[in-house]
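note to self: dont lose this again. the chain is below, predicted strucutre after it. 857 aa total, dont forget to put it in the shared folder this time
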Amino acid sequence: MNSRYSPADLEQRWQTTWRSEGFDITPEPREGKGFYALSMFPYPSGTLHMGHVRNYVITDVIARMQRMRGRAVLHPMGWDAFGLPAENAAIERNVDPGDWTDRNIDQMRSQLDRLGLSIDWDREQATCHGDYYRWTQWLFLELFDGGLAYRKNATVNWDPVDQTVLANEQVDADGRSWRSGALVEQRQLNQWFLRITQYAEALLGDLDQLSGWPERVRTMQANWIGRSEGALIRFQLSSGSGTIITAFTTRPDTLAGASYVVLAPDHPMVENLTTEDRQESIQAFQAEVARLSAQERTSDDGPKRGVFTGATALNPINGKLLPIWIADYVLADYGTGAVMGVPAHDQRDRRFAQSYGLPVQQVIDAEGAAASIAEGEAWTESGVLIHSGEFDGLNSIEAKERITRRGEQQGWAEAKVTYRLRDWLISRQRYWGCPIPIIHCPSCGSVPVPRDELPVELPRGIDLSGKGGSPLDQQEDWVNVPCPTCGEPAKRETDTMDTFMCSSWYFLRFADPHNTELPFSREAVNRWLPVQQYVGGIEHAILHLLYARFFTKALRDRGLIDVAEPFDRLLTQGMVQGTTYRNPSTGKYVAPADVGDPESPADPTSGEPLEVLFEKMSKSKYNGVDPSAVIDRYGADTARMFILFKAPPEKDLEWDDADVEGQFRFLQRIWRLVESASTRIESLKPEERPEPLPESDTTVRRATHLAIEAVSEDLEDEIQLNTAIAELMKLTNAITSVGVAELSTSVLKEALSTLLRLLAPFAPHLAEELWHQLGGTTSVHRVGWPELDPSALIQDSVDLVIQIKGKVRGTIQVPADADKAQLEALALASDVAAKWLEGQTPRRVIVVPGKLVNFVP
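---
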């Protein structure tokens, strides 16, 4: 055996062997379900970063361990390949986005291969390839046939830089595009939507079933869905026209405190109820608000502005006249687009009322309420009703029910549940996306493309300017087609789909990737779904994960699948952060090579001291670490071990070259340990153990089975890869501390066999190499996970901690089966007690069997 661990040669050799022998091809499950391990598939940027490495290595460890457990494992990979980045890159480079994307996929696939990932590449999918998006279009038509896909004219979020529509979820809290960073504008366009709101209650209620998801993610989804219980209140115009404005409120108990009604500026009733003398000011305000994003309009910090329409309505609970306004903080597509203004009990209403001198009427009383309202703050808590006529004296909870019931009896109220969730806008006015398979006919309306004509392929080789709406509009040969129903001239839909459409079902395709008749078969999905372990970033908690859940439920209801939830267990891994240098006065980042002395870094231009931070790795911050450079220097196994050991998987990880070196040294220790044992071991065939075992054998055998127990738990229950590696270190230390020469051959074989099998998911190349060096005749990845022998954990004696007044003063060895009285006597007779008690008799003795004795003098 060579005396030096040289990872480059052995890693490439074993990767070639595994590939040629089809190690990672997915077998059919022998009984019941297989184990489906999946990482969120990446956008093919062309360059692998450390965040990718962490994501895919975590999943790979889980997949490898489950294979060794005897499970049939599905561990696929694909590419989320449509979207604006590829189109923008193609515009900048004057290349076809498809060609650019395919080159990036090839490059990233080769980078992933270097990590030794046990991916079944035979199931690879790319969302931009026709054999995939044919089925995205097919599924769109399924939703269309089921009434879940529809087109309407709507106010949309428009990105003026990328020239496309954004979903609400793609606009940040500052009203900027999640992609370009541009301030989002509001426009009216015909758009395609998916009726996700039809599943709001199911999406919310079924969160309770997802016990394998982080509580944080479930809470984020629940908040986004935003269930609200309340009532619809009908306000009749005072003009006697019979026109009614319907507003939703969660606080019908405050109805008597309403002092105005406010509509969204683009509410369809505004034009008809505005008086002639108010028309000009209303129209000017509407135009101004149309330039604002929904986030800007509803921000708690922004001013609340509006215009009086000239009309009034009647408060149904007391008959008072209420002026009707339009205001920027009311959205047409949220609730009914109308709000009853109760300034005393809603802070936004209070700010609006203060701006325009509207009355403030307190109707909820509680300790501190009147003082708060007098100081200009709304009282939003519960209390007892006042100034509410017959409802005075009721508490808020009872009043909500009583007022709503009275309104239902009199025809001006209706109990209602609403949701913050809006229907999913999927239209995009760009080229590089999945075409929507609809043809618009002047006579027949929106007509689905016949399914046997799918996919509707993107025209290739077209000129992309990146400006002015969809490039597909300009492709007359592609756009102009006969109507499939009547044969008359018609036009294709030129919007493409939001890329989240493609990623909302890809996990289903992996279960049946070569099916040419359907996107997947029910049988294949039942074999593999739900995904047992899904791994990805917390940033996808709302967008991708919510959409995937909706898609799964909708396809179940269409009779295509039987599962109701796509992902059984979810692990959201933390970010990888790098050392970052920033000038605090300018906010500019400085590359490490330019900072001079790292101990006292300075701006190379101004000489100012720099802040040293750990921030998420990115090109703009000059703090990235190239995975290829790490693999070149230390090997893939070291890169894997570091990325797994440095921090718990769900926490952020701070990159440190010294810690990478530490993992490399640990693997070298294992290499040397096996090398020292190889002279005594010709094969790993188990041998009969001598009885009774000497103390050295007993110690190492116990350490061996403690490692089996701990590592198994860390990979099965709460995934804790860092502590699993720590257990491997403990086992290595236990073997080396006793010494190879001091162990019987049977215990040495068992210990090293266990160490290498436990190591195999983490450092697969090294484990394979050393397994064969010790005489292994088949792959370490196929020999099975080591089994725990509980009898090996039994100890004749244990360490007992002795405390004096709660402070640890020493330890003694005691029989493992000693009872409380024996432990107290042994502890009291010890040298530790004699030294620290100094002849005093303890007033109290606290005994925790097997753990400690605490004396209180």
